[in-house]
Amino acid sequence: MRERKGHTMDRIEKYIDELMEKSTPDRPIWNIEKILQGVKSKWNYIDGCMIKAILEMYAITKDEKYFKFADAFIDYKVREDGTIDGYDINELNIDNINAGKTLFELYDLTGKEKYRKAIDLVYSQIENMPRTKEGNFWHKNIYPNQVWLDGLYMCQPFYMEYETRFNDRKNYADIFNQFAQVIKNMRDSETGLYYHAYDSSREMFWCDKVTGLSQNFWLRALGWYSMALLDTLDKADVSSDDTYKEAYENMKKAFVELMDAMLRYQDESGMWYQVVNVGGMEKNYLETSGSAIMAYALLKGVRLGFLPESYRENGKKAFQGICDRYLSTDDEGNLHLGGICLVAGLGGSGMRSGTFDYYMSEPVVKDDAKGVGPFLLAYTEMLRLQ
Description:
The protein is mostly helical. The protein is built from 14 helices and eight strands. The chain has one domain (about 1-385): Alpha/alpha barrel (Glycosyltransferase), CATH 1.50.10.10.
C-alpha cells in the first residue's frame, strides 16, 4: 500500500509539472473553456482555482518552482497601478473575485505594492455588488436577484480575508448574514443538501414559484459551498468571547451538518455522483471536481478541528477513488485527470433548466482546472498527513 501511495504521489507531481510546462498566462492548458472558444485567458475564476492550488503546493513543499510559476502568472496580469488586464469590475460578476485570493499570498511573499493595490481593486467590486432583498450578492449582473452556491466560494473567503486583514472586521456581520440567508433559504431539510440556485424574485423559469429554488442538488455547487463555509471560517478571526462567536459557531455547525449529509451519498468508490442524491439513475456518473472538493473539505475540516478524526478516512477514500478511476496515462506517456463536468448553471443564453437531464447534458472533459485545482488542493491535504 505504501509503495502504491508513493507511486500515485509521484504521478501527481509529474502531472502538475506537465500542466505548468504547457501553460502560459494567455493560454493555460487547464482552461478548457477558453481553449474551446479560441480566446485569450483573461482574469477569471478558473485560473484563480489553479493558481491558488499551485500556491498551496508551494506552501506545503517550499519548492520554488511553484512560487515562481504562480508569481509570473499573476504578475503578467496585474499592472503597476494595480489594474488588472481583462478585469472589469463593472461587469459585476462574482466569479471574478475568486482569482483575487491569490493576491494576498503573493503580496505576502513578494511585497509587490501592485498586488496590494489589486486587492483593493477587487474589493471595490464587492462594495458595488447588487444584492437580493435578503442581503445576498447577486451571482452576476446578468443574473439579477439570483444566489448560486458557486458564488459563495468565489467571493466570501476573499471578503473575509480582506475584512480580517485590512478593514478591522467592519463587515463581518454582512458575511455571516449572507451565509445565514443561504442556510435559511437554500437548504433542504429532508436531505440536508442545498439546491444549486435561488431566485429571490421568483421570476426565473427554472425556479419553483413558491420557494424560488432550482430543482436539483448539483455536486460541484455543493462542493463550492462546502469550501466557501470552510475557507471563510478559516479566514475569520473570532475569539471565544467575541461579538461574532454565535454567528461563527452557526456557520461551523452548517459545515459539519453538510459534511454529514454528503457522507450519506458517498459511493463505495469514494466518489460522489453528478446529481448527488440519485446515484442509481441512468446517465448519472461519478464526477471528479465535486468529489475532489469533498475530499479537500473533509481532510481540511478534520485538520482544523471542525470534524471528528474518523472523517479523515472518508476524505482519503474520496481522493484515492478519483486517482483510481480518472487519473490515467495516454499512449504518449502524458497524464490526464478525467471525469470533470465542464460547466453547469441556470438560465442564460442557453436557457439552462436545472433538470436532471440538463446536468447530464453538459460536456465531461479532462484536465480542466475546475477539477484539477480542487484535486491539487486535496492532494496538499494528503501531503500534510505524511
